From TrEMBL:
The keyword Nucleotide-binding is assigned to this record: yes
Organism of this sequence: Aquirhabdus parva
Protein family: Belongs to the ferredoxin--NADP reductase type 1 family.
GO biological process per UniProt: cellular response to oxidative stress; heme catabolic process
Domain FAD-binding FR-type residues, every copy: 1-80
Name the UniProt record assigns to this protein: ferredoxin--NADP(+) reductase
Amino acid sequence: MTRPAHFRFDAGQFARIGIEVPDAAPIVRAYSVVSSPFAEELEFFSIVVADGAFTSKLQFLKAGDQLLLERIPYGYLTLARYQEPLPQDLWLLATGTGLAPFLSILQDFTVWQSYRHIVLAYSVRTLEELAYVTEINALPELFRDEGGASFQFLPIVTRDSNYPLHQRLPTLIASGRLEEAAGVELRPESSHVMLCGNPQMVDDTRNALKARGLTMNRRGVGNIAVENYW
């Protein structure tokens, strides 16, 4: 959708968008913004839910149709929340449409200037569910001149035992397999870790990270920041 001039957001935040319904209140849902904070359009990552009140109508909207947008953004899954430790390694761990805020973060040139290593681990059930792969693979070249950050994209397909990474994120962390694939260590003194996806993944992954000595980010201090999607 066209971005209204008044709507400003930080990469990682979400918006509340709505669809008008005749003789009823608008149907409103929260969606993280995929777009760069500097883009002129707002893009959202949505999966059609069978008989879903919102997506069953959203899928039939055409160019020029109206979509409602609340005036302010929401959410704290942003890099601004990190003060200690200082930026060095950024881990973005997502399942499903929880990828959305990380796509926005990765299109903010400041992230490429601030970190030495960036790792995006994106877990889905089947290969067909992997989204935005072309765009993700293009990021290092797109932001090549913005800084010297290395970038590792680690797709995970949990229902294909032949796929290189196919176990759940908590298991890959506990075994050290995720770090091995990334070539980067999860360390309390250097890692910023963001989690976004279904609540079970968030809870289990948070516990796996805590077992490695990482802590929740509170008042700017700590490693782990989370956003539940459901």
